[in-house]
Amino acid sequence: MSLRNFIENLEIKNNLTKISKEVSTDFEIANILAALDGKVVLFENVKNSNFRVIGNIVSSRDLVASALGIKKEQLLERLTSAINNLKEPEIIEEGLCQEVEEPVDLTKLPILKYMPKDGGRYIASAVCIIKDPETGIRNSSFHRLMLLDKNHFAARIVENRGTDTALKKAGELDIAICIGNSIPVLLAGATSLPMGVDELGMANALEETRLVKCKTIDIEVPTDSEFVLEGRITREKVKEGPFLDLTETYDKIREQPVIEIKKITHRKDAIFHALLPGKGEHKLLMGMPREPTIFYEVNKVCKCKNVLITPGGTSWLHAIVQITKQNEDDGRKALKAAFKGHGSLKHCVVVDDDINIYDLNEVEWAIATRFQADKNALVMSNQPGSSLDPSGDLTEGKKAKTCKAGIDATIPFDKKDKGFKKESYGKIDLKKYL
Length: 434
Prior knowledge:
The protein has 434 residues and is an alpha+beta fold. It is built from twelve helices and 23 strands. The longest helix is centred in the last third of the chain and has 12 residues, at 330-341. The protein is globular, with a radius of gyration of 23 Å. The relative contact order is 0.12.
């Protein structure tokens, strides 16, 4: 369903928080979204703007699951299936995203200033689509965009990823910036698929996602995006940042490419999606798409049941892997495979299939009762790490390095007795007593 349909469904179920009081894009909207993290909020009266603003739309697993019509326990299976069964999107002649053509003036959009230290106003919710200049294959990804003036952004383009690789081939690239997308498009844009694979095929596998060609550039975009900004990544570079990152700490200032916007189209009565950096929505979109890649690698070496990237680990650096243990060394093999499945992973815990990985008390109980550090810990020094981890070696010009640690909190294979199992009291009907 489109973002618009998703909002309508939330309203029907009384799961939408509406704010009719006039609010400012300078810190106020961001502070309200932070206070209501986990709840979808629609701002109906935004100061100096003709557009409404929506936030926190995928700030919980329950919200993501409801958008896909499944239970949250089924998310890993659904994402894995979509990744493995990509479906080419249909291209149609007209799209709702082009109902209105707007004169190019980015300052008219309700682009937020999130925190006082920010380098400027930022769009953090945009799925940016480019085409490889050699293959013509689309690539969809998130790039934070710092507003420079009426028709320019500075874009944070991560090195050696899809957009950067394509840009190095051509020097300049056309780009379509889509804001206010369906949940499948957001999930696909956040997923790192192999080079040369169209992420919109994943979105279409999750739910039908039709495309329409842009007005001024040879790129197709989701028909029901709320806004589409058509432009070009230029050779010019400027300082971008600082900006709050996934770890809720500030990212550094870098020289980054300038994007020139040449056309703005949008839906009638368009709704602008504002994504709150460092909070639930940001964390889920970054972390959850890494669960299928870990699941895939662990299943190569043992029977993996489930994977969870944890919010306490910034939804990036920590994971819990649930396995059905069939061999003595399955726990250790699962740890090594998990680190392979997500290169930025720093700490991982492997548990048996009787542990509920969504209950961190149960995971901690497994560590307390089934883990011995001198026998079951895996420590790997001087490993490639994440630039988001401020405790790592972040020497300028070099790949980030870190020490990775794994905890095998599974029952020892030769000691599967009742001493390792939780005992439960009998269930009763309290209505008989209270």
